[in-house]
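Troubleshooting log. The previous structure file for this entry was overwritten by mistake, so regenerating from the original sequence record. Sequence copied from the archived sheet and checked twice against the printout by T.R.
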Amino acid sequence: MRSVPWHWFVTTAAIGVVAAGAQPAHAQVEISSKAMSMKINGRVHFQFNHTSVESAQLPTTFFVRRARLSIDVKVNDFVSGRVQPEFGEGVTGLRDAYVRLNFAPGFRTSFSRFTEKLSYSDRDLGVMVDGALGSSGLQYMASVTNGRGPNNDIDENGSKSFTGRLEYNVGKLRVGGHVGTHDYPNDSTGTDEFGTAFGADVHWGEYEKPGAHVQAGLVYGDNWKNLTTPDPSKFASAQVIGAYMFPVTENRFLYGVEPVFRASWGDPDTDVSDDEGWVFTPGVMFHFTGRNKFAVNVDVWTPATGDTEYSLKAQTYLHF
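Regenerated output below.
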């Protein structure tokens, strides 16, 4: 594994000084009228990245990873919605655009973008229903989407993708399970087929609050982008993230320091040996007033075969 050049740490420290000197920002702007209320907020995520991968097109670079402006509109107690454009990495797109019909706390619908990239999750075009079952702590979600991903309203076939999730909340603990099916054209057979993935996760703690915060999850299913025979291979992945925020009480701007650690494992084809790998990510996050943050972390990629590589990141998060 190659060592990290000393001048990258100097650059990282300089970015941290800029972030620490930032003035506090308000969480959101709210505009109200007789007909509706409108809340406007957003965030800007700026990143410095250096990697040891020699084939990388830009081994060292500064870039805006994401810049989002969210507009939440409430027409009345029944109709609400969101529009969220995104500007980042030289691309302009529409991250969210939906209308929500609030029939009751236990049943809501969204004309939203929700599914994934394999594509078992992430945003998509379709319909989602979600809700909570009374005061039991049980929540549910189900969706039907095109399966083509964000900003693509042209479906490549007549089939649809489906997702579902159940989650149980009690105090700071959340336990969930989910399943997703994605429709895809199989070029080798000339037919439309479905890939399926299952997963489970557990979550303890609260975001941006002092104390421990732990997340762990796993997923297993069809890797339909890797067709063998003509059937898809099976993939498996697992991840655990641990953090502990120490409150800072004697500083005007800094209110918390949070060491973090992540361990991720992935195998794109469980029938092939030595193609899996681990990513280890130690880091630290500094929390400022108004949900503004500055973070430094190192990603260490350790494959079953091949060289270990690293990536150093320094990131600022501006919320308004």
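Residues 1-26, 111-117 have pLDDT under 50 and may be disordered. Archived copy saved in two places this time.
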